[in-house]
Amino acid sequence: MTAIDFTNRVAIITGAGGGLGRAYALDLAGRGAAVVVNDIGKEAADKVVQEIVAAGGKAIANYESVGTRAGADANVATAMDNYGRVDIVINNAGNQANGRFENMSDADYESVLAVHLKGAFALSQSAYKVMMKQQYGRFLFTSSSSGIFGHFIRANYASAKAGLIGLMHAVYLEGARYNITANALLPVAAPTASKLGKVPENTLWPDWEARMPERQPEVAHLADAMTPAHVAGLVTYLVSEACTASGGMYSAVGSRFSRVFIGATQGWMKAGAAPASAEEIEAHFAQIQDRAGFEEYPSLAHEMLAVSRRRAELKG
């Protein structure tokens, strides 16, 4: 295998003061990248920078919140002022304000979207303009299985993470002409094995253990493969020049790496110009739900084209 190298590449990693972000920063810096270590925790960001520099790498800290446009722009300015370019953006920063759906406040909902979704939009847009001129760029949006498969007590978090999938798809489609790729990561990790399965104090659910499959004893088999380092390899590859894949969603759980995808069933198509009635939908609902022969579409336009062709065949 050829070593993946990041010499002369510049990466901005948000939320890099600890956990997953720190693991990504250390791996990229160890492979030659200059890294902007973004974290609102000054001490945490400085410590990661010190680790990188002590190992012979290049890094600088940025403490601005990407939840604001000014903060997002400041991160790009830090990269440009110190290293002259931006090649990689890993949108990793996040926050949580968990709670049952009926109890979630507007403030808790909006605060999570501000960091995860708006922050990723603002930072990526600012960096995208630089990447357009460079004719090169790599974006990684940290989504979550919570936003794809669902999760209890995280309506705000799941909304933001699902929104990041839509944002990623837009960037991948528009960025292709500029040699810019965009992918989404669905990571599951714990800082230490002892943290796996810990119950949040603010879940407001006394029967949490019974409701949550991941809290069952069987999940203990994941404990030795759930550190941030177990996710970093996938991240490093996805933001490398060697990886030209774009528009994908990739899961990293317990050293299992897979592509997650969205597909459409063959469904049922009504002949003729008359709209389908609710009764007809009911009569064909099993066919609509049947996943046999499902299709994937790289964009809305591809779906429309596929349906149009099928309709043409139906008309004969």
TrEMBL record:
<keyword id="KW-0560">Oxidoreductase</keyword>
<dbReference type="GO" id="GO:0033989">
    <property type="term" value="F:3alpha,7alpha,12alpha-trihydroxy-5beta-cholest-24-enoyl-CoA hydratase activity"/>
</dbReference>
<dbReference type="InterPro" id="IPR002347">
    <property type="entry name" value="SDR_fam"/>
</dbReference>
<keyword id="KW-0456">Lyase</keyword>
<dbReference type="InterPro" id="IPR051687">
    <property type="entry name" value="Peroxisomal_Beta-Oxidation"/>
</dbReference>
<protein>
    <submittedName>
        <fullName>Estradiol 17 beta-dehydrogenase, putative</fullName>
        <ecNumber>4.2.1.107</ecNumber>
    </submittedName>
</protein>
<dbReference type="Pfam" id="PF00106">
    <property type="entry name" value="adh_short"/>
</dbReference>
<dbReference type="GO" id="GO:0006635">
    <property type="term" value="P:fatty acid beta-oxidation"/>
</dbReference>
<feature type="domain" description="Ketoreductase">
    <location>
        <begin position="9"/>
        <end position="191"/>
    </location>
</feature>
<dbReference type="GO" id="GO:0005777">
    <property type="term" value="C:peroxisome"/>
</dbReference>
<dbReference type="GO" id="GO:0003857">
    <property type="term" value="F:(3S)-3-hydroxyacyl-CoA dehydrogenase (NAD+) activity"/>
</dbReference>
<dbReference type="GO" id="GO:0004300">
    <property type="term" value="F:enoyl-CoA hydratase activity"/>
</dbReference>
<comment type="similarity">
    <text>Belongs to the short-chain dehydrogenases/reductases (SDR) family.</text>
</comment>
<dbReference type="InterPro" id="IPR057326">
    <property type="entry name" value="KR_dom"/>
</dbReference>
<dbReference type="InterPro" id="IPR036291">
    <property type="entry name" value="NAD(P)-bd_dom_sf"/>
</dbReference>
